[in-house]
Structure formats: structure tokens, C-alpha cells
Amino acid sequence: MNDPLRPPKIFGIAGWKNSGKTGLMVRLVSEMTRRGYMVSTIKHAHHDFDIDKVGADSYRHREAGAHEVTIVSSTRFAIMHELRGAPEPTFEEILSRLAPCDLVLIEGYKREPVPKIEARREESAHREPLAPSDPHIMAIAADHPVADTGLPVFDLDDTQAIADFVEKVTGLRD
């Protein structure tokens, strides 16, 4: 399905901490790849993070001052880019670095102007709805009844219906 000359479709999952974003993301990646799509993901973190282990060779390369460190094996490769005080790259800059694919699913990036679904869980500490102030939220996925919205509402665990919605909204099913 992947056409390297066609830009990928983009769809986001937004929500507050512990709203079910990551679980939905994982289920959607699994379902969309099962349907034959090549899927890439972007996860935005609002905090410092590290995917490297202290003491590993690649960690030592970064600590020594390397701008980018690439780790390559027969099963995968990863490139770590140290910002070293430079501004966080824009969403578009990150998107441009991805290999060609059919669909890019985004977790986080609440304010990006891309179609997205809002994840909501009743047990989430922060429960203020995002949808009323974000015109790019196309639907809500929740583990509880949602009233006072004109948007489609899905059960947070109904991955197949949400995947159907993603196909429709992004035009993947054309």
C-alpha cells in the first residue's frame, strides 16, 4: 500500500496524562498494520527522556559530545540527536525525517492542526475536555458516557471502530 511519492496520512491521539492515549495508540498500530498499512509513530514527551542506558557505548558517545549517535544491528537501527540547547524541532521537521509510510500516528502534540481523537478515562486526574477548544478533534474515545458533544463518541476499547474512523477521516480507504 505504501507509495513513497505520496506523503503519509496523519492522525493524532490527544488527551491528558493517564487518559488512555498510549493503550489506544498501541492497539491502533496493531490494527492498522494488521489491515496492511505501513505505520510510523511519533510520541511527544513534555519532559526529559532517555532511550539509552547509562554506561552503554552509545551513551558514552553522546556524553562525549556527539551531535548524533546511530546504533545499528541486524534487527533495527536508532538515531539519537542531541539538541544541546537548540530549540525543540518542529512537528514538520520531525515528520520530514520519517521514512515513507502510509500512516503516521501521533501521540501527544495536543495543539498540532492535524485530525485527532481525544482519549478520555474517568480515572484520569485531569478531566477537562480538550474537544471544545480544539477544532481538529474529530471524535472522542472514552471509558464512560460522554454528553454535550456533537462529535462521534467511541468506546475507548473499540479499536476496530476507531480504526475504521481513522481510515475514513484520513482517506486511507479511498
From TrEMBL:
<dbReference type="GO" id="GO:0005525">
    <property type="term" value="F:GTP binding"/>
</dbReference>
<dbReference type="GO" id="GO:0006777">
    <property type="term" value="P:Mo-molybdopterin cofactor biosynthetic process"/>
</dbReference>
<dbReference type="InterPro" id="IPR027417">
    <property type="entry name" value="P-loop_NTPase"/>
</dbReference>
<feature type="domain" description="Molybdopterin-guanine dinucleotide biosynthesis protein B (MobB)">
    <location>
        <begin position="10"/>
        <end position="143"/>
    </location>
</feature>
<dbReference type="InterPro" id="IPR004435">
    <property type="entry name" value="MobB_dom"/>
</dbReference>
<dbReference type="Pfam" id="PF03205">
    <property type="entry name" value="MobB"/>
</dbReference>
<dbReference type="InterPro" id="IPR052539">
    <property type="entry name" value="MGD_biosynthesis_adapter"/>
</dbReference>
<protein>
    <submittedName>
        <fullName>Molybdopterin-guanine dinucleotide biosynthesis protein B</fullName>
    </submittedName>
</protein>
